[in-house]
Amino acid sequence: MQRSTRRLTRPFKVGWSTEVKVDNSLKEIFGYLYIVVITANWVVVTLLINMTFFVYEVNSLRFSMDVFSATRSAQQNISLRSDTTAVLIVDMLHDFCDPAGAMCLPGAERLYSIQNDLIQSARVSGMMIGWVVDAHRPGVRRDREFLKRAPHCLEGTSGVNVVPQLDKQNDDLVFVKRRYSAFFGTDLDLTLRDNLIDTLIVFGVVTNICVRSTVHDAFFNGYQVVVPRDACAATGPREQESSLYDIATHFGVVAESRDVLDHLAGKGPLKIWEPEE
């Protein structure tokens, strides 16, 4: 008997009730695959475009100088003399740096080794070392910082302790503050003047709040300020770059920590970081 070669176009049953059409099933599968591929390509292209614009914006922020900031006097040469320079380490405290702290900054631990190198080099050269400690008095009727920020660094708690990973010595100075700036309402300026200090190396957390406020007031009070950029951390990359840019163009100088270390070791003038004009 001759076998029939007619195509199977009618549905046939699988199991008890499911009907499958052989001619249409492959078309549906390829149709779905086509949609998936087109959608995936669209998503990839969109991501690439967004990443391109993001990189462009970050590079523009990081390296190009605006017209207003470019109109300035010639850059001063700064010499970090051991008898007239002090190091200020800002708010490297349990509440800001430890994961169990009240307001921990993610990644603060990456600063420890960089900061210790700077502190130890300054200590060997005989510079004054000062630790700036944010410590708020509990029970006050209105703490200005707590109007904007959650309670943190309360006196009498472990939150105000300098993290043990840093090289703090008993004869180092400690300056307790209750505002963002280490100068506001403290004896920092008087202590520096009594020790004939005219230049400060400032670093710590966070760059865009307490470090920046301290740098501003140092400039207003007549001090030269050097900020090692990789010894500071901000609340985000945008805030880090923006704050360092403003410090470099208006309030002090910014440098890499390795260049500060080389200068302290007598390896030539301090190399200063600047945005491109």
Structural descriptors:
single chain, 277 residues, alpha/beta, Rossmann fold, 2 domains, 6-stranded parallel beta sheet, 8 helices, globular
Q: Can you walk me through this structure?
A:
By secondary structure, the protein is of the alpha/beta class. It folds into two domains: 12-63; 85-264, Rossmann fold (3-Layer(aba) Sandwich), CATH 3.40.50.850. It contains eight helices and eight strands; from the N terminus they run ββααβααββαβαβαβα. It has helices at 22-63, 67-70, 94-97, 112-125, 188-194, 207-220, 237-251, 257-264; strands spanning 12-14, 18-20, 85-90, 128-134, 173-177, 199-204, 224-228, 253-255. α6 (207-220) links the parallel β6 (199-204) and β7. The radius of gyration is 30 Å and the shape is globular.
